[in-house]
Amino acid sequence: MVYLSFAQPPKNTVSLVVLGTVQDAGSPHIACKKECCAKLFANSDPDRKVVSLGLLDSKNKKTYLFEATPDIAEQLKTMKRYASWKADELPDGIFLTHAHIGHYTGLMYLGKEATNAKSVRTYTMPKMKLFLESNGPWDQLVSEKNIELLPLENNKAVNLSSGLQVIPFTVPHRDEYSETVGYTIIGPNKSALFIPDIDKWEKWETRITDEIGKVDYAFLDATFYDREEINTRNISEIPHPFVIESMTLFKELPTSEKKKIHFIHFNHTNPLLHPKSAKSKAVLKNGFQIARIGQEFQL
C-alpha cells in the first residue's frame, strides 16, 4: 500500500486509490455550528472529499471511478496523477451505488455546462438507470450522449478485461429513488469489497463476515461512530451501522481478517476523520483500518 505519494504503480498492475472518505454532504457540512466544522469553514482541508474509489488498470491503460461525487473534478485529477501512463482526463467507466446526493450528482459536470463529455460509460442498476433517464437534469446527459448508461444485474459480473471484474450486489438502504449496491472488485491477484452505504449489517440477507473472508480488502460503511455524535436528527431516519456496532460484530474475527477492514464514508461529526483522535487510535488498536485519502491498494 502506498499512502499520499502519487506513486505510479508498476506496469501491468491493477490498483485501487482512495479518492474520498466523507459522507455525501461533505466536511465542513452545510449549516453546521459544531466545533467539528468551525475551523474548516475558515481553513478547508483538501483531504475532506466525498467517498470515492479510483480503479487503475495499467496493463490496458484504463481508469474507472466508483461514485460520481460533488468532488469529481479534483478526484479525477488525482486518479490521473496515479496512472503510470498518460491517462485521459475522464474515466473509461463510472460505477454508481445509488441515488443519494454524494454518489451520483457529480455526473452534472459531464454535461454541456461543464465538460460536455462524449458517452462516458456509466454503470447502473435498473432503477438507478430509470431514475437518470426519467428525471432532469440527468435525462439531458443521456439525450445529449454525455453519458452512456450500461445496465448492471445483481450478482452478475462485468468483465472489464481478462483480469479485472466488477460484481454489483444489492444491500438494504433507504432506496427512495434507486436500489443500493455494493461492489466486489476482482483484480489479477487480489480483490476488494466496497459497501459505502447500508442500513444495518443484520438487515442484509448475506453475512458480512463471510464476504470479508472472500476478499483482501473491505471498505465498509462507517458513517457514524456512535449515536452520541448525532443530536440534531432522528437517527432512525438515517440508519447506518455504528462503528462501535461493527467492531463488536467483527471482534472475534482473526487478526488477518480484521486488518482487511477499512472503515470509510464518515459523517462530518465522525471522530475517525481525525487520525490523531482517541477513537481513531482505538479502532486501530482493535486491529481494524481507517481509509485515508490517497491510499493505494494493489489488486
TrEMBL record:
Coiled coil segments of this chain: none
Any Pfam family: Lactamase_B_2
One GO MF term attached to the UniProt entry: hydrolase activity
Key words, A-Z: Hydrolase
All copies of domain Metallo-beta-lactamase, residue ranges: 64-263
Keyword DNA-binding part of the UniProt annotation: no
Protein name in the entry: MBL fold metallo-hydrolase
